[in-house]
Design brief:
The chain is of the alpha/beta class. It is built from ten helices and seven strands. The two termini are about 15 Å apart.
């Protein structure tokens, strides 16, 4: 079994689910007392969130690149960035290491295309929804991406940073997300990507009017499949 290197803590609320989902997958595949070989570097998210707000992605990328380099030296065979937004600095990380970075957008695209979905809604932070580091990757895989409008982007972002990253689950916020998902369905979306690793804490399939693709679960499964050297 290969060793997974997790870059976590962004936020730690969702990183917990990565560890759970990875080990559940390995247990399902191997049974018995098997569990995943995992190394994790969990950052202090507050300084990174401030760097995001200040548009200082270079500094945030250096923190993650240093951490990824340490994980590789410790024996990680791949790097998993446990956040959608911080995939903005993927190239900066890749320049410092020789092991692959498993991209969260590829995990989502694989699942959507497997299900025959070509038009997808996307929820995430304001950075994910207004910049192209996730959207472009999905488009390169042949997907059409439908986004919330500007006011809804602010709503989604405020709930992520003001509630979900702090472990706060609010029914009123769930209703807001479901209303936004309905608007994307009306615009032609056939499914919706939960493109922030905390959103799955709030929105489940039973809540939504579209098929839900939780990037936390899909990314964790991609990592576990890599560790087990499974074919796609």
């Amino acid at each position: 079994m290969k060793t997974i290197g997790l870059l976590g803590g962004m936020s730690w609320e969702s990183t917990v689910h990565y560890y759970t989902f990875i080990n559940e997958y390995v247990k399902e595949k191997l049974g018995g007392l098997h569990s995943a070989k995992v190394l994790m570097y969990s950052v202090d998210f507050a300084p990174i969130a401030k760097m995001q707000e200040e548009d200082n992605w270079q500094a945030a990328g250096e923190i993650l690149a240093d951490a990824a380099e340490g994980l590789e030296k410790a024996g990680a065979d791949c790097i998993v960035i446990c956040a959608n937004t911080m995939h903005k600095v993927t190239e900066q990380i890749e320049a410092r290491i020789s092991v692959p970075v498993l991209h969260i957008a590829d995990a989502a695209a694989d699942a959507l295309l497997r299900d025959g979905i070509r038009r997808t809604g996307l929820l995430g932070t304001k950075y994910t929804l207004t910049q192209d580091f996730i959207i472009k990757k999905l488009q390169e895989r042949g997907l059409e991406v439908i986004l919330p409008d500007g006011e809804d982007i602010d709503t989604v972002n405020d709930i992520i940073y003001g509630e979900l990253c702090l472990g706060v689950i609010n029914d009123a916020s769930r209703e807001k997300y479901c209303r936004i998902i309905k608007k994307m369905k009306d615009a032609g979306a056939e499914g919706v990507i939960l493109g922030c690793t905390e959103i799955g804490m709030l929105v489940e399939q039973k809540d939504a009017c579209l098929p839900v693709y939780d990037t936390t679960l899909l990314h964790a499964r991609m990592a576990a499949a890599f560790a087990l050297e499974e074919e796609k």
